[in-house]
Amino acid sequence: MGFIHPTDHYFTYESRLASFRKIHSASRRRASNTTARGPKTLKWPHKFLSTQERLTHNQLAKAGFFYLPTPVNLDNVSCFLCHKSLDGWEETDNPLVEHLRHSPECGWAITATIERSDGEWSEEDPLCTKILEARKATFSDKWPHESKKGWKCHVKQVR
To answer: In angstroms, rounded to a whole number, what is the distance separating the alpha carbons of residues 84 and 64?
Structure first.
């Protein structure tokens, strides 16, 4: 049995969205010289996400992020595809714009931007090399038909 990367669990939108509802356990390990007790559980710290404001769990999950808090960065999220972690979210942040800004080569960020018709990518030829590579990257190594004999749909033939 091969190694399963932790982000493999967040390949679907539903699993990424569920990560924001889950209460995460804080690490029990701490330095021997610390006496303060930190929280035993970690959960999304921002109240503005429960309102109809701009930044929502839904938008974060659609931008490819799942919730991956640390005791120091309670609002840390990570992309399931490029593994880029971001924290310090503000109410007016746009997750997709931030994702593309901090990880401009991420296939998910590029294709999600095109889908929303945002930014320069929406004007590009869908068959240009950069967009083809972005689309291939979104498959990662998960394309189920790649090794099927006689099957003509292979990642290298994406067009």
So the answer is: 10
Tell me the three-class secondary structure of the chain, residue by residue: CCCCCHHHHHCCHHHHHHHHHCCEECCCCCCCCCCCCCCCEECCCCHHHHCCCCCCHHHHHHCCEEECCCCCCCCCEEECCCCCEECCCCCCCCHHHHHHHHCCCCHHHHHHHHHCCCCHHHHCCCCCHHHHHHHHHHHCCCCCCCCCCCCCCCHHHCC
Q: Which long-range contacts (CB under 8 A, 24 or more apart) does 141-145 make?
A: 142/11
* pLDDT of 18: 93
Does the pLDDT value for residue 125 go beyond 80? no
Higher pLDDT pick, 77 / 123 = 77
What CATH code would you report for 6-26+40-123?
1.10.1170.10
Confidence tier at 1 by pLDDT (50, 70, 90): very low
- Strand-pair category, 24-25 with 77-79: unpaired
pTM of the model as a whole = 0.70
